[in-house]
Design goal:
mainly alpha; membrane
Length: 151
């Protein structure tokens, strides 16, 4: 739910799925205004719940998880500032779960299945796909396509 809210909020800038729908020229809908106005409450509750629920252990995965929580607390403290919506900062915040989930999956392994396959590639592929789908039009990674169409 956390990442879904993060991906749904800036749809006017980057769309929801590969830049679609392009809402930059349209008046925001009620749903988009509602998400933009109140997403912080749900995310802040999720961060507090995570701190309350998760154990404090001295593993790399737990360290990365608590760092993720601290980064999200920092993000929520910067509301109404330009830093809250800076592309590079928000990309870093959305990239962190990819790193955290891969480390957790690697350190816990897959002890229950007889094949003992590693699970970290599943998390890496899934979170990378979400990042690419959400951010490909934000950083103008397809700028070469626009230049070739003008020729």
């Amino acid at each position: 739910m956390f990442l879904a809210l993060l991906d749904a909020d800036p749809t006017s800038d980057r769309g929801f799925l590969f830049g679609w729908p392009d809402l930059s020229q349209n008046e925001p809908s009620f749903a988009r205004r509602f998400i933009s106005r109140y997403h912080g409450y749900v995310i802040f509750w999720g961060i507090c719940f995570t701190f309350w629920y998760h154990p404090m252990e001295s593993t790399p995965g737990h360290f990365l998880g608590f760092t993720n929580g601290c980064l999200c607390f920092l993000q929520s403290s910067m509301i109404y500032t330009k830093m809250h919506v800076t592309k590079q900062w928000t990309f870093f915040i959305e990239l962190w779960p990819l790193i955290h989930s891969c480390v957790i999956a690697y350190q816990t392994g897959n002890r229950d299945l007889p094949q003992r396959e590693d699970l970290w590639p599943i998390f890496f592929f899934g979170f990378t796909t979400v990042l690419v789908i959400a951010w490909i039009f934000t950083f103008d990674l397809l700028q070469w396509r626009d230049n070739s169409e003008k020729s």
